[in-house]
Structures are given as structure tokens and as C-alpha cells.
Design goal:
Distance between the termini: 78 Å
Largest sheet: none
Number of helices: 3
Shape: elongated
Number of strands: 0
Order of helices and strands: HHH
Helix content: 55-70%
Length: 80
């Protein structure tokens, strides 16, 4: 190989390495967030569970009221 060709290969490799290093993506939000605690916050979990159970209870009460009123009519149609 001639010195000129070798010099061009080295220059191209250096330019490629430079452009590759500058093109690295920025850290995502999850990477910037830092260390997360190993366990979830029990107080927040309990509050969320209670909120969801109350919501379910209210929906069941509404459903039972509809069923007891007799205003609900179920229509079954054959597939086909």
C-alpha cells in the first residue's frame, strides 16, 4: 500500500470515529432519573388499592340497583 492510501484510510477512520462519538443519543428520562428505591411506596400502594376498591364497590352498587329495578333486559341472539 502506498503512504497516500494508508493516510486516507487512517483519516477516514478518524473521521468516522469522530462522527460516531458525536452522534451518541442523549440519555433518556429513565437514565437521568437516577436510583429508584427497590420497593414501591407501601403507603401510596395502599391508598391506590383503597381508591380502586371504593370505585369497584360503587360500580357494584349501581349494577345491583339496576338488576333489582327490573329495568335491565337481556337479549340473547344466536350466532350466525
Amino acid at each position: 500500500m502506498s503512504r497516500k492510501l494508508l493516510g486516507m484510510i487512517v483519516a477516514a477512520a478518524a473521521a468516522l470515529a469522530l462522527f460516531w462519538s458525536l452522534g451518541e443519543p442523549a440519555p433518556t428520562a429513565a437514565q437521568r432519573q437516577g436510583v429508584r428505591p427497590p420497593f414501591a411506596n407501601a403507603v401510596e400502594q395502599r391508598a391506590e388499592t383503597i381508591r380502586l376498591l371504593r370505585e369497584i364497590r360503587d360500580l357494584l352498587r349501581e349494577q345491583n340497583a339496576l338488576l333489582k329495578s327490573g329495568k335491565v333486559q337481556v337479549v340473547v341472539q344466536p350466532k350466525g
